[in-house]
Specification:
This is MFS transporter. By secondary structure, the protein is mostly helical. It has one domain (2-192, 213-417): Up-down Bundle (Growth Hormone, Chain: A), CATH 1.20.1250.20. It has 22 helices and no strands. The chain has helices at residues 2-12, 14-21, 27-43, 45-59, 61-80, 85-88, 91-120, 127-131, 133-155, 158-163, 168-184, 191-199, 207-211, 214-234, 236-244, 250-278, 281-302, 308-326, 329-334, 342-370, 375-394, 405-417. Helix 14 packs across helix 20. The protein starts with a helix and ends with a helix. Residues 412-418 have low confidence and may be disordered.
């Protein structure tokens, strides 16, 4: 939760600190600049995915999770103390860039390490349910950020928020990450990793080992493409869209996002548990069809809402569709790879897809808006979903694969008895 709070709070508070680092131009131009720095973090995720994914496969899931939260704490502290344009010119923006680079490294490894840990630590038949808590915690991080934003909006003036109040959430994030560092130091390692470490000391977490699973790596990129664009559209970009395009007050837009995300968070375990019963592919296919056909009318309608109720209902429809992807995407990717390259196999292809599509989603949306063709972004999201849908329709089901030799032997024993 703390990792993703630190990652998303940048986007949530960008509307308040954009003018502090980019004083020239209109509001959309300032947001474009901060969105560009937001995207920079995503372009570091492949490097983080490679380095920390390799680290997780060679040194363990626990070690990687501890390292990622250390990087995230340092980056949050950097943003909290970043000097403004008025004080040092564009050097403050450079500090933001460095902080986002560190965050990109951290999250590049965090996603794979946590996805792998949750999947390996859970018995077959409950992996979908357990791994769905990754997006529960991710969304909880966003909710904490939005909740803090709502508190600050109601206790501070807009001038104070834009002047110094936006630094508060980053100070909170840095402090909370220090607590998480202690918690992760006391994690137990997974049985699957311990088994692999005992039996195979060579080739773990290497690019050479990953290249022997090229098909699976390409599959991760393709199945992530539509999901990550849709996710960032209905989460991080939604508040800006409701405020900047629909014309809702920032406070109302923030409250819509908060309520919608809370319900979205509660849906994740339900959908993850359902995938343990009916398989992963039906949920992915449902998401693909819904996102391909529903994005244009939903986003068009959201652009015309004039109050809290309409914004909440339409946002929830979009997030219910996205749940078909978010609730199980971690477990699907982990189930595609063997233990010796599982973290790297999840981390690097996923990070590449996020850098190309997830991290740029907000920038692409604002670019379309700045050029007077905002609806073009809606079609872009639909097109990405359509490409991923083809993958969902043709990929193999992964629900019943064994993640370790112990699990495989147990499955064969059960089959023999039957």
């Amino acid at each position: 939760m703390v990792e993703w709070y630190d990652w998303f709070v940048y986007s949530s508070f960008a509307v308040y600190f954009a003018a502090s680092f980019f004083p020239e131009g209109n509001d959309t131009a300032k947001l474009l600049n901060t969105a560009a720095i937001f995207a920079v973090g995503f372009f570091m995720r492949p490097l983080g995915g490679w380095l920390l994914g390799r680290y997780a496969d060679r040194k363990g899931r626990k070690a990687a999770l501890t390292l990622t939260v250390t990087l995230m704490s340092a980056s949050a502290l950097l943003i909290a103390i970043a000097p403004t344009y008025e004080a040092v010119g564009y050097f403050g923006a450079l500090v933001l860039v460095v902080a986002r680079l560190l965050q990109g490294l951290s999250v590049g490894g965090e996603y794979a390490a946590s996805a792998t840990y949750l999947t390996e630590a859970t018995p077959r038949g409950r992996r979908g349910f357990a791994s769905s808590f990754q997006y529960v915690s991710m969304t909880a991080g966003q909710l904490v950020g939005l909740g803090l934003q709502i508190i600050l909006q109601n206790t501070m003036s807009k001038e104070a928020l834009s002047s110094y109040g936006w630094r508060i959430p980053f100070i909170v994030g840095a402090a909370a990450a220090a607590v998480v560092f202690y918690l992760r130091r006391n994690l137990l390692e997974t049985e699957a990793y311990d088994e692999e470490e005992r039996e195979s000391g060579k080739g773990r977490g290497t690019i050479r080992a990953l290249l022997s699973h090229k098909k699976e790596a390409l599959l991760v990129i393709a199945l992530t493409m539509g999901g990550t664009v849709a996710y960032y559209t209905y989460t991080t970009y939604l508040t800006k869209y409701l405020s900047n395009s629909a014309g809702l007050p920032k406070e109302t837009a923030t409250l819509v996002s908060f309520c919608a995300l809370f319900i979205f968070m509660c849906l994740q375990p339900l959908a993850g548990g359902l995938s343990d019963r009916i398989g992963r592919r039906p949920l992915l296919i449902t998401f693909g069809i819904g996102s391909m056909l529903g994005t244009v009318p939903l986003m068009t309608a959201l652009g015309g809402v004039d109050g809290f109720g309409g914004g909440l209902v339409l946002s929830l429809i979009g997030l219910v569709i996205v749940t078909g992807y978010t609730s199980i995407n971690a477990v699907v990717k982990a189930e595609l790879f063997p233990t010796n390259v599982r973290a790297l196999g999840v981390a690097l292809p996923y990070a590449i897809a996020n850098a190309l599509f997830g991290g740029t989603a907000e920038y692409v949306a604002l670019w379309f808006k700045d050029n007077g063709i905002e609806s073009g972004f809606f079609w872009y999201v639909s097109g990405c979903a359509a490409i991923s849908l083809v993958v969902y329709l043709t990929m193999r089901e992964t629900r019943d694969v064994a993640l370790s030799r112990t699990e495989q032997v147990m499955g064969e024993s059960v089959a023999t008895r039957v």
